[in-house]
Every structure is written in C-alpha cells, then in structure tokens.
UniProtKB/TrEMBL annotation:
One of its GO terms (molecular function) is kinase activity. Residues 494-864 form the Polynucleotide kinase-phosphatase ligase domain. Keywords: Kinase, Transferase. It holds the Pfam family PNKP_ligase. Gene3D superfamilies: 3.60.21.10, DNA ligase/mRNA capping enzyme (3.30.470.30), P-loop containing nucleotide triphosphate hydrolases (3.40.50.300). This is Polynucleotide kinase-phosphatase. Residues 205-404 form the Calcineurin-like phosphoesterase domain.
Amino acid sequence: MSISSERTIEFPHAGLVVLVGASNSGKTTLLDKLVSEGVLLKTEVVSSDHFRQLVGDTEFIDWRGLPRLESDVLFYEYQQMSAKAFEAMDTILAMRCRLNKLTVVDATHLYAEDRQKYVQLAAKAHVPVIALVLDVPESVLLERDLGREHPRGRQRVKQQAQLLKRNLRGIRQEGFNACYILKDVEKINFARGAQPLFHDIGTGIDIIGDIHGCYREMLEVIEQLGYIEDPEGLYHHPDGRRLVSVGDVMSRGPASLQAVQFWKKHVDAGLAYMIDSNHGWKIGRYLDGRKVTLNHGDERFAAELTQYEHQAGKAAAEQLRSELRDFLLHAPSHLIFGRNGLRHVVVTHAGIKDHFIGKQSARISDYCRYGDTEGQDANGKPIRKDWFVEHESGEIVVWGHDPRPQPTLVNQTVNIDQGVVFGGMLTAYRYPEKEFVSVPAHENYANDPDSPLVRWQKKRFSPPNLRKLIAGYSVLTESYGEVRVQGESVKSDIDAVSHVTVPMEELVYIPPTMSPAPTVSAEEGYLEHPREALAYYRGQGVQTMVAEKKHMGSRAILLLFKNEQAAVEYVGYPTLGTIYSRSGRPFFGPDLGKQVLEKLNADLQTAGYFERNQTDFVLLDAEIVPWNLKARELIAAQYAHVGEAALLDRSKLVDKLKQAKAIGREVEDWLEEMKRKYANAVTFQEAFQKYCWDVDGLDEIRIAPFHTLAHSSRTFFDQSHMWHMEQNRELAGLSTLFMETEYRVITDEASEEEVIRWWSEMTEDGHEGIVIKPERFLMKNRDKMIQSAIKVRGRKYLHIIYGMDYLAPENLKRLKQRRTNKKERHALMGGALGMEGVERFVRKDTVDRIHECVLAALSLESEPIDPRL
C-alpha cells in the first residue's frame, strides 16, 4: 500500500511494527516524535542501536580507513556485538508479543530473512505484524549522513538505498498483515488503535448459552432478563444492559434462521454481541459456497433457508445469504468485557488458553470454536480435555459448547450450555451480578439417543478429575453465590476422602458448623445467653424462631434407602445406606453400623414410611447420643484425667489451707479462692460425665434427627423448622432408635422470656443448651443469607469448653472479647455448600458435581478457627 496524500495510519493495539529503511531515512526521528506526541510509549520502541549499546557499550564501530589487521578485528567485533544485540532484542520482542504488547522495532531490516523472522515471531505469538517502509531518496540519505555524529559512509548508504529499491515490491508478499510504503512521513498522521476485542461492561451484560435454534426459549430467557421489545422488534433493557451470545445460535433446533437473524439485527443495532462458534463457522462457509458437510443439525438450517427462498423469492434469499455469510465469518473468536481497560469477563464458545486472551489468529479461532480435544472415542465423538484446569489469569471465562445438566463453575470458568436443544435448559449468566436465569426446553428437539446430556448421565459415577480440584476451585451455590476453595485446604481432604471416609458416592452432605451469637452476653456472669441470639434474628427481620434442645452427642448424617436395589440409581451399587460423622467417616464400626441400618430399615418399612412418602430414600441430619460413642478417647484424654487431677490437687490444697487457718495463719482469702476453684472442678467433672454411659448393643443408642433434608423427589430446605420438628416427632414414633427433641416456638416477647426461662432451668440442671433457628432453614435479609442456627450453651457446660475456671472475672472479661466473624462466615458457606450438594444428589447429578460441594465443606473445616466457638 503506497501512501502519497495525507492520511492516518493506525498502529495496532498489540503486536509488532517493523520499520524498514536505510540508515538516515528518519526512523528514529519519527519514533521520537511519536513518543513525544503520546502516540507511542517510550518502552514500546525497541532499537537495535540501543541493544548494541547495552551489550557492547556503543551503537557503532567504525573500521574504515584503518590498516587491514585493525579493521578486520574491529569489523569482527562489530559483527559479534550486532549478533548478540539482535539475540537479546529478539528475546525481548518474543516476551512482549507473548504479553500482547505493542512493540515497534527500529532497525534497517533491509534483508528479507531479517523481516521474515518477525513475521514468524508474530505468527507464533498470535499477534499482528505490519511493516512501515520509509522510502527516502538516496540524495537525502547521503545529505543526512554527513550530519551524523557517527556517519555510516557514502558507500554503505548507497548500498542500503539500492537494496531497499530491489526489495520494495517483494515486501508486500512476505506475510505482513499490512505494509505501508511512506514517501513523506510529514504528510502522515499516526494514531493508536484500540483493543478490538475489548468492550466496557457498562451497566451490565447478559450472556446466553448455546441456543441451537430454540427461538421460543431464547425469547423467554430474554424477557425474564428484563428486556422489552420495541415496535421495530428490537429488545432493549431499561438499564442499558446488553446481550451476549456464546455462539451456536443455529442448527439442530426448530428456528435457526430466526435465531441468527435476531442476533444479526441486534448486533448491527449495537444492542448485542455474538462470538464465533463451530456451527456458526460451518454455516458461514456453507453460505460462502465452500464445500462443507452439513450434519449434526446444520442441514436443518439449509432447509429453513430453502423454505425462505420459496416464500420471499430468490433475490431476497441471496441478499440474506450474503448478509448472514459476512456476519458469521467475521464473528470474533472471543470477546473481553471490563472497565478502565481491566479485564473482568471473557466470553468464548468452547474454551480459551490464558495467553490467547485478547489475541486473534486462525489457530486461536479454531481453539475457541472447538476447545481442547484429543481425537475421538469409539463412537466418533470428540474427546474433550479439561482446558479450564489451566486457567489462572483471573478473569471469569464464560463458555458453552459442552452441554451439562447445570451451570458449572470450575476455576473461574462458567459453562452455560445446558443442552436446551436436547431437552435441557437455556441458561443466561448475568454480570456483574453473577446470577443465572434459566428456562426449560419445551421439548427434546434433537431427539438424540446419544446426546451429550444422555452421555453425561451415563458417566455419573465416574471419579472426579482431581487436577481441577487440587489447585483450588470454586463452587457456585444457589443460596450464597460463589464459594472459593483454596488449594492448600483441599489436598489433605482429598487424601481423607480417598482413605478414611465412607465411599464418595454416599458422601452427599457435610453439615455446616454452628456459631454462637455474634455478640457475647451482657448478662453478668454469662458468656452466652439466649438474648443475644434472639436480638441477632430480630435485627435480621425474623419474626418467628424455633428454640431446640441441644443434645450433647455427636453429629451424624443418615442416608437410608428403601431397599438395597433402590440405592443403585443414586450411588451405583446396592446398599441399605450409610451413617457417617460430620468429617465423613463411618460413625459406627462395621458390625454395629450394619445392625443400626438393618434396624432402622426394618422399622421404617414396617411403618410404611417409604411408600407413604413415595421416596426411595430419606436423608437425615441428626445428633447421636451418648457422646462417648464417638468421643471416648477425647473424653478420656482431655476431660477425665484433667478433672481427676484437678479434684485431687484442689481438694488437698483446701485441706492444707484449712489446717493453716486452724493454727492461726491468715489464709482466709486464699482458702475461699481455692474452695471456689474446687467447686469449679466438681462442676467440670459433672459436666462431661452427664453425657456418657456404657453402650451395650442397640438398646442404649439414641438418634435425634432435627432436619429431614431430602426424599428422592425433593429437598426440604424451604420447609419451616416447625415442620422439621414434626418430622422428628413422627420418626421417633416409628423406631425405638429415634428420639424426639424438645423445642419451643418464639413469636413474641412473652415466648422469648419463656424460652430464656426454659434454657436457664435446663442448663442449670447440666444440659448443654439450646439452638435457636429462624423460621425456615434458608432465610435472607436483603438478598444475603443469615445464620441458619445459633447455639447458646449453658454456664455449667461451658466449663468443659473454656476450662474449669473460665467464670473467674478476669477470665470472663478476656473471653468476652472473642470474635465470631470467621465462624459465622464458615457457617454460611458450609450451609450453602450442604444445600447445593443435596440438591445435586436429588437431581441425580454426577458424583463429580456432588463431590465438589462435599470436598469444599470439608476444606472449610480444616481452616483454623477457635475450636471453642
């Protein structure tokens, strides 16, 4: 491209600009001018002369006019220095290209092999490369050389000028994205190009997954997102939000032509964006007249286009073909959305590597269309690799292409292809809200017996890909949002699940931790008191609460199946169920555990529980007593020996002090102090012994289920805690192993005072305390989850938690400064993970999807928090 009249040349956002010109052609002068004008940054200019100075302390060595021996030595030194300078410069250029930076290379570049090196470097890094050729008359070059501090010499300048003339025509065919031959740079304006793939988020974007011609479902999603149609058929959002498609808007479904026309119309109007995709690319080449095989539903688009021609005529059809061809063939491989130049979200069809983001090339387009694959399976289906496990550059990558039953968030990537054309759902992802909006398909349009959703269900019990977990990952929960799990917290729990927990398929729920009230008690002589828990819930707008007696036992999860065969559909093999602790370990030994399961199954079968509730299983969250069933070693090592030693030591000291007082020593204060401490030791000893008794078989075991979490048809997180307590009462009537839990309902000030009185009497008698819960399992205040339960432990019981002398004024003052923030946050996240895991289990989601919730909940437990809280 020859430039003669005044015009503007735009530098690319990133890539290489190779200056070509003889010495004295004004390359450095032009670049200095552009730097001073702010068109270029100083760091974006890389000069061979500068690198010669860096490696050899000078930009030029003049060997002319010297004796042969000296000139040969200097010439060799200059060649070596230049070679090393270009070697260092090429390394820097490769690094900058990898980082998607703009670099202007200031050197003569008169030989084709020198220029070809940069063309290849740019292609390898997927960045554009352009040539700026300064074609300056030889006379001007010679005149300028006379004014240089280090003249290149007349002969050398003439050789370079002639070499450039011979190369001018060939430069255009050397593979540059653009080549500009400049006769007079004074007549040229230079500007800086923007990143073509970057767009400002504005008020928000709504990204829609693979539509595949499901036009009706697409409009339903768009309307649920709040977009309103105008008289011209364009959909606008009242807040100015914009639509984004991950591609594959056509093929397989019933209305491909309508779908692609919709997106073209909205993209042209600046209301939407659509990226390239495998089906879009194939249809675009088909419309361009290229030889492609229309299959996998693409033939439906061709049939719709033929039908359009019959209705609208050949001319209209050709016009539509041309418009859609250009639209599809020029769709970007991916798009970036952010603010102030900072990337927040990347939208791609099938996947993207971190170092591809913001770049464009044929290879990148292919990768974004098809993802990372390694051949085909026995059925000819592509074997997809988990490209997302390598993502670590921080942006959220939203993608489709690979249908999954539910939106999947792994490692800051979000899959929103839920297979609407296969009878699944059409999903939209709202950003910055990070929320999903989905509508179910009206029918299975593809009617494919081996669809991705069918294959997904077939691999339900495949083990998870540990690579995507071990470095840390995210779980997207309905109630809390994203829960991020750190890699260092995961590794030990992966080992535990591999060796000591119940089988992964049966490990479906880890109960969340429970926090005391956010504020300590203002009541004198109390660390915890019901008033603080009640005040917390009143402050969250909760009108009705439930106070449940807290059993001093061990938390357990019971997954009880109707019969062994019913379990196969849920865990993959026959079993009556499992009972495990909150760390996922079997609660009982093999023999006792089998006896408990058989007894519970027999009792529930006899009572007709499974048939009456039309369920294949029941999932219970419970407390099992006595405490020493699981805590025998803890009691012996941490409580019994301490209590015995304290009683012996303090009783002897009291006796000695009494003897000293009897002989006239002034030890009254000390004696009174030791009497109080002896009484504390007695309380401590009584506190834990109350919860321990010998167990001989099943008769002494009691199970108090306080949450009926799920049946095979649904979960019960939306039910009130009163409902859960009624279920507890029903179960207690069905089996002697189950026990009822005493509770109170709180609705007003009078019922609050009654609960406080009840708690006081109960805890003074040595019971642990109560748990206060809001009306329902899941409650929110201004869209944020609130604590699902707050424990209030009694004064006597807290002796075994905080020590036998914790009520001493100086100790109590210090303990009242405790902070519960982290415990509360973990309780919220653990609750959300638990609900999410159970929902997925009931939906018969994959073990992989359920396991990520369980592993995340276990990882929360491994993070350091004051265990006394």
